[in-house]
Amino acid sequence: MTSTLRPPPPASPRTPAVASPAPRSPRQGRTWRQALRRDWQLYSLAVLPLLFFLIFRYLPMLGNIIAFRRFKPGGSIFGEYWVGLRYFRMFLSDPTFWEVFTNTLALGALTLLFCFPLPIVLALLLNEVRARRFKRFVQSVSYLPHFLSIVIVAAMVMQLTSIEGTANQIVSLFGGDPVAFLQQPEWFRSIYVSSEVWQTVGWGTILYLAALTTIDEDLYEAARIDGAGRLRQTWHITLPGIRPTMMTLLILNIGSFLAVGFEKILLLYNPLTYPTADVISTYLFRMGFQSSNFSYAAAIGLFEAVIGLILVLSANVISRRTLGTSLW
Predict the structure, then answer these.
(1) 104: closest CA among 236, 296, 324, 274?
(2) Is the Cβ–Cβ distance between 299 and 208 less than 8 Å?
(3) First and final CA of the chain: distance in angstroms?
């Protein structure tokens, strides 16, 4: 019996496959009313924070109009009549303003120089500690000053630096004469920056310790296999891993560069230390509330806010173009 080979059937033209529409996400096409109706419990949580910022942050901005208008106590809250840039020209030609502006730059630069890198160093050191009890103890001790009131911190600084305080007792042990530290202009910046470091460095490590936990441990294992020591691992793995957090906090610190701690300076300074302690915020306070020159004070405050905005925008652009990390 012979088998006959049949030729394969001619290939029929294949009809092009019609792509089925992609499944539609349930959130696509949903209007904001439908989203609000469905998730109103979540949106209700944002009501109080939004009201807070609206009442205490945005509505007070309307008061900046008196920087361009003549304001008299008891009159209209938006000023009596338009004066243009008169008050801006006044403080730009005021030598006292430029003195306090220089003091603000000096204190801001010293605060940024010490209070920004020290939390990073402390976080790196704590990350190397393997004794959990000792690590928690150091964290608790370093966090505690942040929760103290500014008034308490200022009182402690006054007690420590008084004529009979701890600092002068140490000076006396080495045969020196007691020094009235808070009455000497040359000592004020050192005292202020030291108190800021003591109060803020421990609290600043929280974000960096959280960022350190996100670094992949396999990177450290690979580095150890390649023979890298702890310093090289820190330089090539740890610091690049927390760089976004570092740049974000640096931009925020630069934005508050001119807003040097008003409350602490107001509690610590006195007329004898004005040459180095008087800053824009304290000068603004004296002009507005002690001299009742509210329009002049509003002009100074608006100038300070504009400079801070320029610093934030500039730092954000530089960070985005050089490191690829920015706030927005």
Answers:
(1) 274
(2) no
(3) 83
Nearest to 188 by CA among 88, 283, 65, 273: 273
Task: Count other Cβ atoms within 10 Å, centred on residue 290.
Answer: 8
Q: Which residue, among 117, 158, 130, has the nearest Cα to 249 in the 3D structure?
A: 117
Confidence of residue 176 (pLDDT cuts 50, 70, 90): confident
Quick check: 17 pLDDT over 80? no
Residue 30 pLDDT level (bands cut at 50, 70, 90) = low
Cα 69 → chain centroid: 32
- DSSP per-residue codes, 123-182: HHHHHH---HHHHHHHHHHHHGGGGS-HHHHHHHHHHHHSTTSHHHHHHHHTTPPP--GG
User: For residue 29, what are its two tokens?
Assistant: 């096409």
Q: Predicted confidence band at 1 (pLDDT cuts at 50, 70, 90)? A: very low
Work out the average pLDDT over 88-112: 90
- CA-based nearest residue to 303, from 287, 276, 280: 280
Compute the distance between CA of residue 165 and CA of residue 170 in angstroms, rounded to an integer: 9
Residue type, 69: R
Evaluate if residue 151 carries a pLDDT over 90.
yes
Coil vs helix vs strand at 20: coil
* pLDDT value of residue 77: 77
Burial readout 128-148 (b: 16 or more C-beta within 10 A, e: otherwise): eeeeeeebeebbeebeebeee
For 82, list phi and psi in degrees, rounded to 5: -80, 135
